[in-house]
Amino acid sequence: MKLLQYLTFLLLLISASAPAKDPLAGLADWVDAERERWGIPGLAVAIVQGDEVLLAQGFGYLDLDRSRPVDADTQFGIASLSKAMTATALGILVDEGLLNWDDRVVDHLPGFSLSDPWVSAQVTIRDLLSHRVGVGRLFGNRLTFMPAASRGQALAVLRHHEFEQPFRQGYVYSNAMYAAAGAVLEAISGQAWEDFVEQRLFAPMAMTRSNTRLSALDDNAARPHQEIRGELVEIDRRDWTWGAPAAAVNSTVSDLARWMLFNLNGELEGKELVSEDVLKAIHAPSNLTGFDPDYHGVSAYGLGWGLGRYQTFHVLRHGGATDGINSLVWLLPELELGIVVSANRFTGFNTALAREVVDRFAGLDSTDWSGQLLEDNREARADAAADREDVDRERQAETAMSRPLADLLGEYFHPLYGSAEVILDNGEPALRLWQDDSQRLVLKHWHHDTFKARWINPAQREKFVWFAMGEDGLPAELNVRFTLRPLALEEGVYPANYVRIVRYLRQ
Fold this sequence. Notes:
Layout: H1 2-17, H2 27-38, E1 42-49, E2 52-60, E3 76-77, H3 82-95, H4 117-122, H5 125-129, H6 151-156, H7 175-189, H8 193-202, E4 225-228, E5 231-234, H9 244-247, E6 250-251, H10 253-265, H11 276-283, E7 287-291, E8 298-301, E9 306-310, E10 313-322, E11 325-332, E12 337-343, H12 349-362, H13 369-393, H14 405-408, E13 410-414, E14 418-425, E15 428-433, E16 440-447, E17 450-455, E18 462-469, E19 475-486, E20 496-506
Helix pairs in contact: 3-7, 3-8, 12-13
């Protein structure tokens, strides 16, 4: 018995003195293998803990030609990760006494106007930043809204935008409200949002390869990719133009490692960018978003950050999706841990990677998150493809238009979505939006007075439009179903569970 007790004690002593398993051991090889399995051309990852950058590394290539490897300094369009940066920029003005989170927007932007005058007068900066105004998306996956408009011109038409939910009665994600927040920053600071963010955020934090303009990208910038009709191809970058405060930042995982350290510690290398009170307000819940379907707990939205749980840990997180580029950041204050990943294809691997990293650092049992989410992705695509086939089967063959094609030509107008012109392009019917030749769709007769409209930019895919006749039997309306979020993007933009049908009237 004494011998057994001694051996047990010895084993415990050896176990206690054994070095803890390195959470980074084999991680790089795993990331690269899973990148290949998911078919992602290139991605970059950074992991921070405490006040250290533990990993900042690229995998794969900028493009399908493998012209250059992705590294920690490769620039990606980080899309909605920009929102927390816009909130922090406004926090600088709060610290300077120039702004309060609960200031009314109209007190800084007198021309701010929504479809409800009372709501217009009540909306605060906090409302804009926490998605609780009730006004939803104007642009979504593959829809570029008013691409040539200035920020002021685009915001001016918001008075025609219908509410999706009553004011402050729920969560309605809105890039347009972040554009309004950027306009508030410009009105107070006297600087363009782009200049303020670069000079007052990026420069003090030494985020030297971060910028707010497509024109500032260099030759070490990831090219976006998308699978179209079964083939992975390179697509055009999106220029966020007037919606820049919602999604225009380009950055690298090296720079975003610094951004994560600042958010985790409240300072970076001994320097405070904003006060502790301001950062707490940014990270605090301002709007409930529901219950997390994967981990029990309430989900919320702060000011540019989503708040939820993973396992037992509190997580500050946000995704960023722009055309062909997908980013994700997770901060876990209890573990002093931050993870960011950017990839040049839109997939679910980013979430699998974040979960894998947390499991390793928290000492949790290993789970094949990548395999599970890859299977979920395949099932979602299969379901969307089946739904798409159902739509195609509903086409009514051998039907004709109720009026000759020539009668459909002309201009149609909607107060929010502007001009839509039905024209002939090389003898074929086409639709031109916003009097912008880059925003054209080729029209192919589907059935009756409905057409399938195919964007000239193949990454935007197709949608349906249909004409309605007036009392005189002539075309009076053009209806366009804009897809704001498809069920599975790489299967096409229809079917979708988030659309907006825009009814243009004949002019």
